[in-house]
Amino acid sequence: MSIPTVLLFLLEVRGYSKLYDSSERSYGLLQFCQEFVSFLFFTDMLIYFIHRGLHHRSIYKHFHKTHHIWIVPTRFASHAFNWLDGFLQSSPYHIYAFLFPIHKFAYLSFFIFVNIWTVSIHDGNYAVPKVFQPFINGAAHHTDHHRLYNCNYGQFFTFWDRLMNSFRSPDIYEQKKKLDD
User: Fold this and answer.
1) How many angstroms from the chain centroid is the CA of residue 76?
2) Phi/psi of residue 19, each to 5°?
3) Strand, helix or coil at 116?
4) pTM
5) Cα(122)–Cα(138) distance, rounded to whole angstroms?
6) Which of 43, 59, 70, 105 has its CA 20 to 30 A from that of 23?
7) How would you classify the pairing of strands 19-20 and 102-103?
8) Do residues 46 and 95 touch, judged by C-beta distance below 8 A?
9) 3 state DSSP class of 168
10) Alpha carbon distance 46, 43 (integer Å)
11) What is the distance of C-alpha 109 from the center of its chain?
12) Contact 18, 101 (CB under 8 A)
């Protein structure tokens, strides 16, 4: 997975992407926030379709099954991929840098954020504030994805799962609702 990723990084930093630094244009907090929101929504969309495609019966056993060995995901599962699976699911982050201007610092920050997020949705900590639970694809959503295989493919949000009819409210949230009633 590292070899094709490094090749893309080389293309990005050698000027073939739309990466820029502060010497090329002004950059501030507002620009950082705009790029962050744009990056999240763009990559979430592509990852949804790539991830769902990796669950197709003719592809799953060859590429994505390795990741689903962990029926109850752990932090270790967050980066346990077949090399092609991992590369495909990371490709939206690189595609973004070739299509949209993004500050080099922001790009690096977003990569760090993505890695932290990826670990967090596999760590079994369901601490998403209740108001955000319907919208944020947290560990509870991803745990059900690992258990059931056919739902909650999104990376950050539940939007694409809802739109494509693959959303499933996490069992842990449903159990809490019953206890609250």
Assistant:
1) 16
2) -65, 145
3) helix
4) 0.88
5) 9
6) 43
7) parallel
8) yes
9) coil
10) 5
11) 15
12) yes
Helix, coil or strand: residue 19: strand
Residue with tokens 């070899």: 3
* Residue among 180, 37, 58 nearest 110 (CA): 37
169 contacts 176 by C-beta, under 8 angstroms: no
What H or E segment, with its residue span, contains residue 110?
Answer: helix 104-120
Q: How far apart are CA 92 and CA 6, in angstroms?
A: 15
3-state helix, strand, coil split of the chain in percent (to 5) is: 65, 5, 30
DSSP class per residue in 21-47: -TTTS---HHHHHHHHHHHHHHHHHHH
Q: Residue 153: which H helix or E strand, with range?
A: none
Of 102, 151, 146, the C-alpha closest to 123 is: 146
> In angstroms, what CA-CA distances link 85 with 15, 43, 73, 103, 121?
27, 16, 17, 27, 17
How many C-beta neighbours within 10 Å does residue 126 have?
A: 15
